[in-house]
Design brief:
By secondary structure, the chain is an alpha+beta fold. It has helices spanning 8-29, 35-47, 52-59, 63-75, 97-117, 123-138, and strands at 50-51, 79-84, 87-95. A three-stranded antiparallel beta sheet has the order 1-3-2. Helix 2 crosses helix 5 (97-117). The protein starts with 7 loop residues before the first helix and ends with a helix.
Amino acid sequence: METLSGTTTFVLHKVAVAGRRAIADRLAERPGLTLWEYAALAELAELGPSAQNALAAALGIDTADMVRLMDTLIEKRMVQRERDPADRRRYRITLTAKGRTALTTARKAVREVEQTTLQPLTAAERATLHALVTKIRTR
């Protein structure tokens, strides 16, 4: 009989849950972000100024949830929402200087948690693991 610990997807899930919890705790401490706020800032940094609905699609979240998320980030002065000059019917979201600073701090925290989580692996094993899970994800 196969055990749960012998099931690769179960073990991956357990590692992911522990990593996600550790990252969430660190982000809450400094720079004071939730995981979704961090994800939105990171995606926005990658995409550049974006339509709010495009950002929601990239993150895979409902547009109503995106509005609430952006409202929170606007209150924190980490993003700006303005009418898109190319299409006045939609909003464009832009990172602010405060948002870029928070993202830099958050990325450092995420790297530290990842280093701790993956500490038992060599650098080559980490690279292999990343390549393998990326291959599974993009399939």
